[in-house]
Amino acid sequence: MIYVAALLVVAGVALYVAAPLVGERPAKGAEHDAELERVTHERSLAVQGLTELEFDREMNKLSDEDYRSLRAPLEARALAAMAELEQLRAEHRADATAAREALRVLPPVKPVERRLRRLVYCSQCGDRVRADASFCVECGASLNPLKSAAMQAD
Hints:
By secondary structure, the chain is mainly α. The protein folds into two domains: 29-105; 120-153, no CATH class. 64% of the residues lie in helices and 3% in strands. The protein has helices spanning 2-18, 28-58, 64-105, 145-153; strands at 120-121, 128-129. β1 (120-121) and β2 (128-129) form a beta hairpin. The mean pLDDT is 80.
């Protein structure tokens, strides 16, 4: 009995650990979003590094020679990230355009016309009355709110 329980615990732990390995693969849109987020993060890190480098130079913490030697790789990193980001956005625009073109091929949907019946209810008793009636058949209240208000004021 103890062996069976131990075996079940070991099997449960093994399945728990292996679950991410056999899980579903993300969709193409999710992969594109993750790549876009990664490249955006890379660009922001490079721009932040350039900003901090500029600040250090203004505070006279760096010499001009050190500034130039540190700026070149950060600038190249930022430009590479920006180029990759622009390429990903262009691919996304192309995919969106292709999807719109695919939808454009479908014939337009014709709306269904329905005639709506106007239902009128008495504001006093709640009974249903004819649409062209002026007074409620049940309680005799006026169905015209302006006339009804004038009569109550008198």
